[in-house]
């Protein structure tokens, strides 16, 4: 099942702020493997298939370094189509001596790294959903070592040539100020379901029984402040609904819960979660 298309609500695009647009564009092309869809003096839209923007990087005026111990981005996660694709990019990272973290989550295998501004990136591939273990409404996840040799072996025979065209934005993991309050925004407001938890420090939410489209944690501290507008880091992200009707229903639920919903000049609908993370509601 494809968890990143209708009837599922999912994250389809992320915008981050960087200190040097040229440095970041080079990094995301040469290290991660994006293509530039279009670029201006202070902004670049990045794509995997040459048509669909997945990541936008923006250099604001008077930008400042990424603030620690705030809400905002923990990481955005790039989902590769196949395990062999993960093997090829792992080999690519190894050749460049890129510092990496890694984990076998039982539902997926993941690599972790930072961009030049400290924005967290996950690159992963999913295990077959038929092999995921569900206990009621909860999916079993773990933080186990990956089998790097087996992953590399999957990618042998073809060189790394950048992100495959079927790459999507798999999920987004956020620092939250209050876990329960922020989770209520995404569940009661936007219609996601909690499918996994890590004690009282992290929650994982999805639609359509995916392992997670959104992660939330309080690892920067309960009550962590929102970062300054000038700070490098997360600017916004898109929550994509399968239909206009579901988007309108979510908008009305947010208003009923007391959240401010804004109609921007271009007609787009934006809001902020209780931790100050800005998002757009799209179809």
Task: Itemize the secondary structure elements and their pairings.
Elements: E1 10-17, H1 21-32, E2 35-39, E3 43-47, E4 53-58, E5 72-80, H2 83-95, E6 101-104, E7 108-114, E8 120-126, E9 134-135, E10 138-139, H3 148-154, E11 168-175, H4 179-189, E12 193-198, E13 202-206, E14 214-217, E15 233-240, H5 244-256, E16 261-263, E17 269-272, E18 278-282
Parallel strand pairs: 1-4, 5-8, 11-14, 15-18
Antiparallel strand pairs: 1-15, 2-3, 3-4, 5-11, 6-7, 7-8, 9-10, 12-13, 13-14, 16-17, 17-18
Organism: Rossellomorea oryzaecorticis
Domain VOC: 10-126, 168-283
Protein name: VOC family protein
Strand order of the largest sheet: 2-3-4-1-15-18-17-16
The share of residues in helices is 10-25%
| SSE topology string | EHEEEEHEEEEEHEHEEEEHEEE
Distance between the termini: 20 Å
Proportion of residues in β-strands:
25-35%
DSSP E strands, number: 18
- Rg: 18 Å
Q: What CATH first level would be assigned?
A: Alpha Beta
The CATH superfamily name is: 2,3-Dihydroxybiphenyl 1,2-Dioxygenase, domain 1
The fold-level CATH name is 2,3-Dihydroxybiphenyl 1,2-Dioxygenase, domain 1
User: Tally the helices: what do you get?
Assistant: 5
């Amino acid at each position: 099942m494809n968890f990143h298309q209708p009837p599922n609500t999912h994250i389809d695009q992320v915008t981050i702020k960087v200190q040097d647009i040229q440095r970041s564009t080079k990094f995301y092309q040469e290290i991660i493997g994006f293509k530039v869809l279009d670029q201006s003096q202070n902004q670049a839209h990045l794509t995997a298939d040459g048509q669909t923007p997945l990541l936008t990087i923006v250099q604001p005026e008077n930008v400042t370094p990424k603030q620690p111990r705030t809400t905002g981005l923990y990481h955005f996660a790039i989902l590769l189509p196949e395990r062999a694709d993960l093997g090829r990019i792992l080999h690519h990272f190894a050749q460049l001596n890129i510092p990496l973290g890694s984990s076998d989550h039982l539902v997926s295998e993941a690599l972790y790294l930072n961009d030049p501004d400290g924005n967290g990136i996950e690159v992963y591939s999913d295990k077959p959903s038929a092999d995921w273990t569900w206990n009621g409404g909860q999916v079993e996840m773990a933080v186990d070592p990956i089998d790097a040799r087996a992953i590399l072996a999957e990618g042998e025979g073809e060189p790394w040539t950048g992100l495959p065209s079927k790459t999507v934005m798999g999920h987004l993991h956020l620092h939250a100020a209050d876990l329960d309050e922020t989770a209520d925004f995404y569940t009661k407001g936007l219609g996601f379901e909690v499918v996994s938890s890590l004690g009282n420090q992290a929650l994982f939410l999805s639609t359509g029984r995916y392992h997670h489209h959104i992660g939330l944690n309080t690892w920067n501290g309960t009550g962590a402040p929102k970062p300054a507008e000038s700070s490098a880091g997360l600017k916004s992200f898109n929550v994509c609904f399968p239909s206009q009707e579901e988007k309108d229903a979510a908008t009305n639920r947010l208003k009923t819960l007391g959240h401010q919903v804004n109609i921007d000049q271009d007609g787009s609908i934006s809001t902020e979660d209780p931790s100050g993370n800005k998002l757009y509601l799209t179809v």
